[in-house]
Amino acid sequence: MTIKWIDWVKQIQSIAQAGLTYSKDVYDIERFQQLRDISISMMSHYTKTDWEVVEKLFASETGYQTPKVDIRAVVFQNEKLLFVKEKSDGKWALPGGWADVGYTPTEVAAKEVFEETGYEVDHFKLLAIFDKEKHQPSPSATHVYKIFIGCEIIGGEKKTSIETEEVEFFGENELPNLSIARNTEDQIKEMFAYMKDPQKEKLID
């Protein structure tokens, strides 16, 4: 279940940032700055995180605020799915990360797979677009859309990276300890469903 206060704080921050972006009146700008600071203080207080840290992670963007985009690569081999073990939490996730400016979604998928696993991929196919708020129990300070892109290995060889400890393929009934903030068991099972039925309807929302 979503922790509602986090949603409300994010909405306050979004309204404040839009106001700071478009307002011309100095008094309105001051009020929106106060509103932004209140949202940071609330997030800092309830998460027990330093104000400056919250400001950097939660309210450092400029311009109109939009959801961030997380791209995950779905790579099967012999009916097993490619995972990486993240150094940050010691749990397993599909290769991927934040979308980078200047890259298309498939270019991000290919780059993340190569950097995290050593494999080269191609033959991309959009599988799903999820709103993280609706599908993942772990609360987040940012609103995130997650794009799952199917791809096939065309070269390279297995290796780890500065972000990953291990690289392995797992079958549907042998899933590792998942990094839920990155991908849930339900999402992974949907990816296996695509492997079994490539014509399966795309998932959105």
From TrEMBL:
Keyword Hydrolase: yes
Keywords associated with the record: Hydrolase
Protein name: ADP-ribose pyrophosphatase
Keyword check for Hydrolase: yes
Gene3D superfamilies noted in UniProt: 6.10.250.1120, Nucleoside Triphosphate Pyrophosphohydrolase
GO MF annotation terms: hydrolase activity
Record family assignment: Belongs to the Nudix hydrolase family.
Domain Nudix hydrolase: 66-194
EC number(s) given by UniProt: 3.6.-.-
Top-level taxon in the UniProt lineage: Bacteria
